[in-house]
Amino acid sequence: MIFLRNDYSEGAHPQILEAICKSNMEQTVGYGLDEHCFNAAKLIQSRIKREDADVHFFVGGTQTNFTSISAFLRPHEAVISSSRGHICVHETGAVEACGHKIVAMPTPDAKLKADQIDEAIEYHEDEHFVKPKMVYITNSTELGTMYTKAELQEIRKRCDKYGLYLYLDGARLASALTSSENDLTIEDIATLTDAFYIGGTKNGALFGEALVLSNPVLKPDFRYLLKQKGGMLAKGRLLGIQFEELFRDNLYFELGAHANNMADMLRNGLQSKGYPFFSDSFTNQLFPIFPNETAQFLAEHVSFENECKIDEKNRCIRFVTSWATTQEDIEKLLALL
Amino acid sequence: MIFLRNDYSEGAHPQILEAICKSNMEQTVGYGLDEHCFNAAKLIQSRIKREDADVHFFVGGTQTNFTSISAFLRPHEAVISSSRGHICVHETGAVEACGHKIVAMPTPDAKLKADQIDEAIEYHEDEHFVKPKMVYITNSTELGTMYTKAELQEIRKRCDKYGLYLYLDGARLASALTSSENDLTIEDIATLTDAFYIGGTKNGALFGEALVLSNPVLKPDFRYLLKQKGGMLAKGRLLGIQFEELFRDNLYFELGAHANNMADMLRNGLQSKGYPFFSDSFTNQLFPIFPNETAQFLAEHVSFENECKIDEKNRCIRFVTSWATTQEDIEKLLALL
Amino acid sequence: MIFLRNDYSEGAHPQILEAICKSNMEQTVGYGLDEHCFNAAKLIQSRIKREDADVHFFVGGTQTNFTSISAFLRPHEAVISSSRGHICVHETGAVEACGHKIVAMPTPDAKLKADQIDEAIEYHEDEHFVKPKMVYITNSTELGTMYTKAELQEIRKRCDKYGLYLYLDGARLASALTSSENDLTIEDIATLTDAFYIGGTKNGALFGEALVLSNPVLKPDFRYLLKQKGGMLAKGRLLGIQFEELFRDNLYFELGAHANNMADMLRNGLQSKGYPFFSDSFTNQLFPIFPNETAQFLAEHVSFENECKIDEKNRCIRFVTSWATTQEDIEKLLALL
Amino acid sequence: MIFLRNDYSEGAHPQILEAICKSNMEQTVGYGLDEHCFNAAKLIQSRIKREDADVHFFVGGTQTNFTSISAFLRPHEAVISSSRGHICVHETGAVEACGHKIVAMPTPDAKLKADQIDEAIEYHEDEHFVKPKMVYITNSTELGTMYTKAELQEIRKRCDKYGLYLYLDGARLASALTSSENDLTIEDIATLTDAFYIGGTKNGALFGEALVLSNPVLKPDFRYLLKQKGGMLAKGRLLGIQFEELFRDNLYFELGAHANNMADMLRNGLQSKGYPFFSDSFTNQLFPIFPNETAQFLAEHVSFENECKIDEKNRCIRFVTSWATTQEDIEKLLALL
Question: What is the pLDDT of residues B228-237, one digit of tens each?
């Protein structure tokens, strides 16, 4: 079985696992106050050129999202998001469970448009409505698409205009930043957002996301929220150790690039065989459209997820490549078609 | 100034106010455990032919909605509503503040369609999504439209099919049930829903809504929620006294009918002058479309709310009639055009 | 039956009811944006000598408390309160339902001691604990006791030292401020607290509490919270009208003084008959201790609440006087003993 | 430095780490739906002799506690706990952040007494109070003490009497069950509680807690809550793999026994030197009392936590042994005194 179901099907990249093993009997204080966490935070600050930013480590993305939103917003404040945003759809109402409405704007390509921020602001007239205070975007998005630098700058302008925080969910940031079509750097992201997270779980870590708080308004007491929402890991160093490996040299970006290379090969192969795509993805998630029988046949040999029905005869499926995907697997898959 | 801004612009219908005055020096226990509340509950039970139903009194509608939803749902459960539903739009995220997502289905006429329930259920596949557990509808709706008996029965069927509670927000129930186009009785509503509320604030009470719980599953410990969410009035008898007046004889329906008569007169007048309407309303809210300059001119003489822009030259405004609206006012308004 | 069960057994003081009746057919906008509310706010600002304070009107006290706490605190922040504080005990966990822990400090007389603030702060060491950010006190307290000016100043000092907001629940403020033993003015309270509310429900209003926000930090967006938490009354003017009556001249204080006079008479009578008291109350709640059989006998003639068991033979009960209590009733009661 | 600060100072027991490494390149579905999780659940079901119980895996204890409480209770329901209970003190108000009050009963030895359940129930009279619906206990407790079988049975009886769920926080269950003074089996615990969790983080796992739901009422939709509250790990198999190791043979109990042996040795040594203890602990947490200067001297050589001040001259500190503590370390420590 070729496994293209997701980018968290295996454990960790061997270098990361080795670091965990090597440090196993070290004795440290808990809760992320150890040297590994401090060092990993410094590596990240230095890589994003924001020595002043705060860095907090989480085990998973849902946790990171709702803890941040809960920390940033007052009870009547809301988040603007694409209607395909992960927080809108796939987190079992975690944001609402923390008390906040998500103002979902319909976006076929999963990218929030700057004009939709105007639209959302205008709609919420007075105190009978929630008050939008934050914009949530993902990069790469739930459909594998990416924001350009110009788009992100335009979104930033609207946020400034309306006094909104800009938060970027980087569960798949490595893939976005190493895509052939990308024109954003991680420094750009650190500059243009108020907060963003660097996803580890989907890019070779056993688990782990690094939240970066650039806007000083968002920093006070964040660790209280981290603890309250269940995100403070007892053996917090496990997160530090992993991000040390990812950011000591270039591993974080190398793993993203590998996933993209595998996706490029797959996309090119599928395109040359004439299959259309549901979204223009140049990252590690591809959304090809297949006739139903082809999809059924593939399912016998490949593990993947169904995205949606296209019409009576065709459906869209999702292939996800990762740091662990091999060229052999891609070739085998293409040979099936 | 002709006041058609809303149906809560005055105090109470004189008969209700008189009852409050007459009982003023009675000494009763607090929190809705007095004889007036018991008697009012009995009058309602008898009128809806559900002696087994529980009746709870609230001061306002937002309170009634979020307290009920909070009482009925577990944390991961969600409410399906028209995207124009009052809870979606005009309650400052009160439902989300209680932890629940609203699954908003776009409906141009503010009426949720039975098929949209199927759609919502199908979309929410597994535990990564919220779980729809309740359907919220308003009657009459935010656009003055109404559910037919057939429509309500069809919604009930879907609720039964999927194990959903059906809750009807009756802030303007009096107007709906006394509309010339209505084919539903209050008994039908008590039979077809699991819970609904009978709106007093917008139909001649100083304030007050009577929540009816028909489904026994929803009854236990409801008074705890009433207290916790701030809905338990110290001098609870004020609610009982008012609903005694409304339901002792037929006052509740007479007041609704009066509001509708005034709206009919206004609608007919506007139609005969050639003005189109944004929605097909036969209740006490009308949504005529006027050229911008006409709307501006009217605003000098009439107090009303803007609903929305139609195009560069026209806009939709809202007129609301009430138990207190006079024929003279309607005539004066029509004479302006 | 002599009714000393509580101070909200009747409707409204006749002057207040009359004002409601007189204004009944006035047409106003809703939600507290009418002239009566503006005028009432001005009367209060002027009476407390804080023209800069914001005033918001609520229907009831539980609502006022949880809405304020919810508006003032971030999710990890907590309220310090006497363990007998109304929010700790009698509000069905409304504060916790908004997400906040109450740090309850045991106080036999229901008065929080300034040193207990130190104690609470010291106990909460780091981010594994909640962070106390607010002090909640009631005046008069749940046991009828009162804060002296020196005590309130001392509490203020600790609040300043630790960066805590001071909030005073004035459900029975009228009784406190007109007590023979009181040395605080309403101006003192407005100066020494960050926020407090002036209770109307228990002092002659049909219902209503006026929240005063003195600290500018607490003001932004408060009306969003008022709406979200269900406290925004459609016919908001009802609150304005009542507080106009209470604060136009001196009615608020006269009603409190009357209740206290009745309590003084009752206390003196009981003392002269040798009955001890559970608390030193010089306000409108008295907590006499009776042998069980005396209490049982009284219950046949007087409506009151049981407070607690003292020992096998004696119990403490609560008598509450109000603006409506008559000298005849007190004399009758004393004659029974 | 001798490290007795806590039982999560190192990584994982080597056997567990090896299993993680060995399975690293396996490809599995995510979110705990893989074979390792199924197998681990079966091993636990079989070990506790409850094939019918549901088992869910979490990363940490705070998460397990608040997710369970949130899943089990309605908004007005509360948890009874010892005032030293972990949820009361060290979880930054996580339970309150989910909306529930903790009814904290003072207990010097951190063990909730059965009679305190009666007391809590009697105190909460009606709907103005929260409604206790669940009892939370820890075993071993925050002071290293343990429940006897008789005590647990008595607590169960009260829970049955009042319709309360009994939940046991087993963060340090391994140490409790292998203590020389223990008379409870894990089967007893599975029988006497409605839900409990088997702590891995503090007993040799890299991280992980296994929640056991015995009462069928608590099972429906639990995975929704697991996801919503951030507890659903993407690479869920990591939890399954670790609990397979802990429960395939007897590793879970062996590690607990080792920690206890080290604690026994330390306790005996301290006792023989005449140091008193703050609590009667026969588990892996010891609370010796030292003169301040002794404690200061020790702090230069041993890493530990301060528990509390005893008097001006003495203080209580906490030593925690673990699966990783060595006899050499204990000997070295004792040699210092």
Answer: 999 999 999 9
**How many other C-beta atoms are found inside a 10 Å radius of the C-beta of residue A25?**
13
H helix runs in chain A, sequence order? 14-22, 35-47, 61-72, 86-89, 94-97, 114-123, 149-162, 173-177, 186-192, 222-228, 237-248, 251-272, 292-299, 327-336
- Closest by Cα among C224, C226, C169 to C193: C169
C227/A contact by beta carbon, under 8 A:
yes
Residues 6 or more apart whose CB falls under 8 angstroms from that of C62 comprise: B227, B230, B232, C86, C91, C94
User: Cβ separation of A90 and B129 shorter than 8 Å?
Assistant: yes
Q: Which domains does chain A have, with CATH numbers?
A: 2-7+252-336 (3.90.1150.10), 14-249 (3.40.640.10)
B31 touching chain C per CB within 8 A? no
Q: Pick from D90, D98, D130: which is nearest to C92 by CB?
A: D130
- In angstroms, the separation between the Cα of residue B33 and the nearest Cα of chain D is 12
Q: Which residues pair with C169 in a beta bridge?
A: C138, C197
CA-nearest residue of chain B to C20?
B11
What confidence score (pLDDT) does residue C254 get? 98
> What pLDDT shows up at residue D214?
97
pLDDT band at C316 (very low <50, low <70, confident <90, very high): very high
pLDDT-derived band at C160, boundaries 50, 70, 90? very high
Q: Give dist(CA D52, CA D33) in Å, integer.
A: 18
- Quick one: closest CA in C to B206, which residue? C235
Distances (CA, A) of C302 to A177, A205, A252: 78, 72, 78
pLDDT digits (tens, 9 = 90+) for D301-333: 999 999 999 999 999 999 999 999 999 999 999
> Which residues of chain B make contact with C36, given a CB cutoff of 8 A?
none
Q: Which position has the token pair 């040798």? A: C274
CA D98/CA D104 separation, integer angstroms? 17
Contact A199, A171 (CB under 8 A): yes
Q: How far is the C-alpha of A39 from the C-alpha of A127, rounded, in Å?
A: 45
Residues in chain B with CB shorter than 8 Å from the CB of D131 are: 221, 224
Residue-wise pLDDT for B162-183, tens only, equals 999 999 999 999 999 999 999 9
ipTM: 0.96
Q: Which chains touch B (3 or more CB pairs under 8 A)?
A: A, C, D
Q: Outline where D169-250 has alpha helix (H).
A: 173-177, 186-192, 222-228, 237-248
Cβ pair D168, D162 in contact under 8 A: no
Residue A69 CA to residue A50 CA, distance in Å, equals: 22
Rounded to 5 degrees, what are φ and ψ at D291?
Answer: -60, 145
Q: pLDDT-based confidence at C262, cuts 50/70/90?
A: very high
Q: What is the mean pLDDT of each run of 10 residues along chain A (337 residues)?
A: 95 98 97 98 98 98 98 98 96 97 96 98 96 98 98 98 98 98 98 98 98 98 98 98 98 98 98 97 98 97 95 97 97 96
8-state DSSP, D178: T
Task: State which residue of chain B sits closest to A309, comparing Cα positions.
Answer: B123
Q: How many CA atoms lie within 13 A of B50 on its CB side?
A: 22
The DSSP output letter for D184 is -
**B112's tokens:** 């949720």
D157: CB partners within 8 A, 6+ apart = D114
